[in-house]
Amino acid sequence: MLSPDQLTVHNIAKELENISQEMIKIIQKYELSASSQLEVIDMARDNITDSQDYIRFLELSLEGRIYGEAAAAIEKAENEKSG
Questions:
Q1: CA neighbours closer than 13 Å in the CB half-sphere of residue 7
Q2: pTM (two decimals)
Q3: Residue 56: CB partners within 8 Å, gap ≥ 6?
């Protein structure tokens, strides 16, 4: 995880790329494919047989969401400063 002083849009983008790459490995390992994001968690629950992989999948999902929200907040603050 990035420390608070490392939270920049650039650093967050790099973290999100790392998270995506690790998620892709799990998705490929268990051949997960869903037509919507809402189906992914159910599909993961049903198909990921290794509990450590399932826990990591959930951790990555949460980290991705947190970083995405942080990036959006940073961008909003920057836009408000310059606007």
A1: 16
A2: 0.87
A3: 22, 26
